[in-house]
Amino acid sequence: MPAAAQSYFETHRQLTANLTGLIHGTCAVDDVMQFVAKNSGAGGSPSRLDQDAIEHAHETVGQVLHSRLHQSAFDTMSVGKKLLSQEHVDRVAAHVKDAKASGCFAGEGGRSLPEFQQLLRNLQVRVDASKGPANIKAVSRLVRELQAAAQPRPSTGGLGDRPPSSPPPTSTGLPALSDATLAVASASLLGAMRSDPAACSKAVAQGVVGHAGQILARDRSKGTGTASSGAAHPELSVALAQILSEVVLQSVHEVEAKQRERKALAPFLVGGEGVLSSGNRIAMLKASSVSGEAEKALDSLLLALKSSLNRHEYARMWAVILALTMLTEHQVCISQILARGFLPVLRCVADALQSEKGPLPSPMQRPQQPEFPCTKVTQDPPPFSGASYAPALKRSGGTVKDKWLNSSFSLPDLRKPASRGGLHGRSKELPPMPPLLWILGEDSVPPEAVYRVCDRSLLVLKVRALLIRIEGSRATLVQPFALTGH
């Protein structure tokens, strides 16, 4: 046998051995791809593999990666969210890394690699957040997650440029988080802000008030390619509202400390007639005002409350009411709530809830801007309706009756095989597999999700108790001016 032929057969034998080792797990993906690249003529080296062998190797690697990625993903999902560990996530991450590096991933069943990357990112964020309340070092990372969720999705150029199963990325280029995962991350951030005032100050400095307010006041499913019911995720809404209330409470603690100082100095600030001077009166008034970020947080809560009332989004309404209930434990917060105009809105909420009979009405569908495909400029002629592009000599001379018989299922032409599916015209193609987030139950928020946290009776009781507490404390607004003698 010539030396060239012997080298050719030896190279194919080694390729077969490498592919067999990849299937059995004894050979790495990088080793197989490097062997194929080395013997395919890349980089000026002589080619020892024909094109069919190279295509067969790429196809085999893609099928193996597809099978492993599916198996690791479903094994991780079958464990459950509570028993999810870093080991499961690392196994999925290793297969995603191999599939991305090889470039041979076979997206079978309607699933693409970005969908697995989105699942991996959701699992990783969930595992990091489930380790307990975040420390001050993790605050920046969690705030960035809120920032990415608050920003609108970039335009994808229409549905035709992106596969239906491919999730749209965020403005940072990372896969989007589901509402359930974002709720876990928000709860972890809330625990860090409550346990450490320095973590709260750091989160406020990085813009957590604006990010949480944007997510709470709008529908995250707009522009994400998922089904939108107009309902808000209850746990996510509660966590975001609690974050805003925690910012207000941290500012209130500083105000209360200043008030104690001013109260101790009040006997020394009174003039001879027992009246505060104008400068001292302004100083007492400033001691009762919260920071600008706290005012912004209160405005975000008021906007969310109005939006939930107008659109019957009771999950957001419940979250805001819980946050206001915590704030009314401090007199300074009650004065700020009254000054911001919460009282008439809460009365409207109470009247609307009491007028409802039976279950809560379904949330209203939020208006969504239609997504149009990008205009493509080409030199091809436009597709005229009914025009025939075949040459005149090759055009079919059949009659209209022949066309009807060819497209009919009741009188098919027995001389030709059926062109559409099998029995009764049914297609033999299998339907596309559901998205991975749908299997996890995190692809959308059902309208009935609000009943996980509250119902109409509980909402009425909470609003009534909140109104009683706020209306009973209106007389204390003049407490800082009690020493003026008027």
Describe, in plain words, how this protein is organized in 3D.
The chain has 18 helices and no strands. It has helices at 3-24, 29-38, 51-79, 86-102, 113-129, 139-150, 179-195, 197-205, 208-217, 234-269, 278-286, 292-311, 314-327, 331-340, 342-355, 400-406, 436-440, 456-471. It is mainly α. It is 56% helix and 0% strand.
Break the fold down into its secondary structure elements and pairings:
Elements: H1 3-24, H2 29-38, H3 51-79, H4 86-102, H5 113-129, H6 139-150, H7 179-195, H8 197-205, H9 208-217, H10 234-269, H11 278-286, H12 292-311, H13 314-327, H14 331-340, H15 342-355, H16 400-406, H17 436-440, H18 456-471
Helix pairs in contact: 1-2, 1-3, 2-3, 3-4, 4-5, 5-7, 6-7, 6-9, 7-8, 7-10, 9-10, 9-12, 10-12, 10-13, 12-13, 12-15, 13-18, 15-18
